[in-house]
């Protein structure tokens, strides 16, 4: 690329990445994903991501592989350009939210097991049942909420 490059939204992207990392996402994939939220329309190459983030190409490579495997970003190939570009998958956020529904259902089952095996602690049983109910609620409602959001957007 050469020279100083202006990357819009760097500070906000870093703050958003820190929030994702605090919520449990690995730090480098979170940073790459947030950089891609503010990418140029043609996406970023791995080298451009490394430059924007001030990290090594290897760090970007690992994060890109992870995010592609999670179907959050995509590799974009352009005829005549040997370098792949990366950008967010359309609807990545809705996919990320709804893809956790099976996890919530499985967690609810484990919460029920905890409650069933902890009969001598009624407060713990009640807490486990409440968490299980909440997780089942998320499992049921998340796909509908995403559909409602899509419908609202037109």
Task: Describe the 3D structure.
There is one protein chain. The protein starts with 9 loop residues before the first helix and ends with a helix. A hairpin with a 2-residue loop joins β2 and β3 (81-88). The protein is built from 7 helices and 3 strands. The protein is mostly helical. The longest helix is centred in the C-terminal third of the chain and has 32 residues, at 122-153. The chain has helices at residues 10-22, 27-37, 46-53, 57-69, 92-98, 101-117, 122-153; strands at residues 44-45, 73-78, 81-88. Helix content is 66%, strand content 10%.
Give the arrangement of secondary structure elements.
Layout: H1 10-22, H2 27-37, E1 44-45, H3 46-53, H4 57-69, E2 73-78, E3 81-88, H5 92-98, H6 101-117, H7 122-153
Antiparallel strand pairs: 1-3, 2-3
Helix pairs in contact: 1-2, 2-4, 3-4, 6-7
What's the quick description here?
The chain has helices spanning 10-22, 27-37, 46-53, 57-69, 92-98, 101-117, 122-153, and strands at residues 44-45, 73-78, 81-88.
Taken in chain order, the helices and strands follow as HHEHHEEHHH
Q: How many H/I helices?
A: 7
Helix content: 55-70%
What spatial form do the alpha-carbon principal axes imply? elongated
Uncertain residue segments: none
Average pLDDT number: 89
Strand content: 5-15%
The number of strands is 3
Amino- and carboxy-terminal Cα gap: 38 Å
Could you give a short account of the major beta sheet?
A: 3 strands, antiparallel
Overall radius of gyration: 20 Å
Q: How are strands sequenced across the largest beta sheet?
A: 1-3-2
């Amino acid at each position: 690329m050469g020279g100083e490059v202006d990357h819009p939204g760097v500070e906000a992207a870093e703050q958003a990445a820190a929030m994702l990392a605090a919520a449990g996402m690995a730090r480098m994939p979170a940073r790459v994903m947030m950089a891609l939220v503010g990418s140029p329309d043609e996406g970023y190459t791995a080298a451009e991501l490394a430059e924007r983030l001030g990290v090594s190409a290897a760090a970007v490579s690992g994060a890109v592989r992870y995010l592609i495997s999670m179907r959050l970003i995509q590799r974009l190939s352009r005829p005549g350009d040997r370098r792949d570009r990366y950008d967010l998958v359309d609807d990545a956020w809705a996919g990320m939210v709804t893809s956790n529904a099976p996890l919530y259902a499985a967690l609810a089952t484990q919460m029920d097991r905890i409650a069933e095996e902890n009969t001598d602690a009624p407060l713990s049983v009640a807490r486990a049942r409440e968490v299980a109910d909440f997780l089942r609620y998320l499992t049921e409602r998340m796909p509908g909420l995403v559909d409602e959001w899509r419908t609202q957007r037109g």
